[in-house]
Amino acid sequence: MAHIDYFFATFSPYTYLAGERLEKIAAKYGATITYKPLDLMGLFDRTGGIRPAARHPSRMEYRMQELKRWAKHLEMPMNFAPTGYPPNPAPAAYAIIAAQKAKAETGAGDLGGLCHAITRAVWAEERDIADDDVLRGALESYGFDPKLVTTGLFDGAVTYERNLEEAVERGVFGAPFYILRETDERFWGQDRLDLLADALDELARADT
């Protein structure tokens, strides 16, 4: 069974635009996913990236054009200047990490739906993903115990730091970023999901 390591940031606009396409692709090919939310600004600092606030205006203008093009192409609602952006991404990441651990133990909950709900809260719903009530609501809506917001804090913080270290070691430099574990093929950006699907298809045909 193929496996995808999925590195992402809870406040990333391109992670939002990825939607739940990864989950649909994985389901088609019987692949499993490990969700690895990380500190994207820390990743930029470690891998030669530039934080948005320090980028040249021409780069930021192009980024905005791209976001508008992709939102229209994917027919996804998007507020291109959300209030309070950027939010503190860590609490949402901790909640996702705790939910993933709970799902591994019980089998219950929709982890992909939870991740998308959190990014959607930023980019389409004007909600603060650092707010415990927002996270509790998302957890409960997707089949997880809302108490994970508090009970998962310690494990979440430790794993969040570990995810950043792993990302740097494995060649990750942006988000969303997908690594096909069997081949170490790396795919950066939601616009590479079709190529990830092609790689999974090749693996599936090689196994037949």
Characteristics:
208 residues; alpha+beta; Glutaredoxin; four-stranded mixed β-sheet; 10 helices; 56% helix; globular
What topology does this entry show?
Layout: E1 3-8, H1 13-18, H2 21-29, E2 32-37, H3 40-47, H4 57-74, H5 90-106, H6 111-123, H7 132-141, H8 148-151, H9 153-169, E3 177-180, E4 185-188, H10 193-206
Parallel strand pairs: 1-2
Antiparallel strand pairs: 1-3, 3-4
Account of the protein in words:
- It is built from ten helices and four strands; from the N terminus they run βααβαααααααββα.
- The relative contact order is 0.21.
- Helix 2 packs parallel to helix 10, helix 5 crosses helix 9 and helix 6 packs across helix 7.
- The chain is α+β, with helices and mostly antiparallel strands and 208 residues long.
- Strand 3 and strand 4 form a beta hairpin.
- The chain has a four-stranded mixed β-sheet.
- The model has no long low-confidence stretch (mean pLDDT 96).
- It is globular and about 50 Å long.
- The protein has a single domain, classed as Glutaredoxin (3-Layer(aba) Sandwich), CATH 3.40.30.10.
